[in-house]
Amino acid sequence: MAGLDTTSGGILGKGRNTAWRATPTNVDMTLPAILPRVVTIDAEPQGVTIDLARTAIVVIDMQNDFCAKDGWVDHIGGNYEADRAAIAPLQKLLPQLRQAEVPVIWVNWGNRPDLLNMPPNQLHLYKNSGEGIGLGDPLPSNGAHVLEKDSWAAEVVDELTPQPADVRVDKYRISGFWDTPLDSILRNLGTRTILFAGCNTDQCVLHTLTDANFLGYGCIMLADCCATSSPDFCTEATIWNVKKCFGFVCNSDAVLKTLP
């Protein structure tokens, strides 16, 4: 991210909005003078005005296990192509957000090989009969371990390769905030508004968004940058609930129109 030089001596912290400045005789804890970059987005149920300098996008679970042939969803006979619907809009949006200095944060399943932090109810999500291929098991097609950190199965799809300046966060539950550093990272970046994208719309995207709402962030779901292999009514209910209770909904074009 451009802006504050957090590598030089005297700067304490990585967030351009939150860093301290230190000398041998003084520590300046006042907030850096970052000019707001105010834009208004055409959203539902209302238009929303945000500060791009205090905004991040969180992209959830755009991983091979959900979005690629021979991944876990494909293995169980699910419609992995449906989860790919978010790829093209994100390919268009993410470069523009990076250019506008909006942090891109990838929040993905990245489980421990030993699964020691995964209780039985979480293992049941992926192997509800106790048999077959579940979390940490090798896929028959290529041997990659399902949603295991550093495996092909857990990697972001090739079409959306994260860039060096992007932030990666491993998650271990449907919500990206549970038992992860996501909240600390966002607060250290000075983030107040989060754009949400990824899959599945009605599961990991929704529950990460609702937790963000409970933590006090402004939440905007980018509907065309979200996807799910669930039935259509699941997406309809999710969008209705986000607009009713948890934030705002728009398409990526509404954001692109506001970017410098």
Automatic annotation (TrEMBL):
Top-level taxonomic group: Bacteria
Pfam families: Isochorismatase (PF00857)
Example GO molecular function: hydrolase activity
Full protein name: Cysteine hydrolase
UniProt source species: Rhizobium brockwellii
Keyword Transmembrane found: no
The Isochorismatase-like domain, residue ranges: 55-253
Keyword Protein transport on entry: no
Keywords, comma-separated and alphabetical: Hydrolase
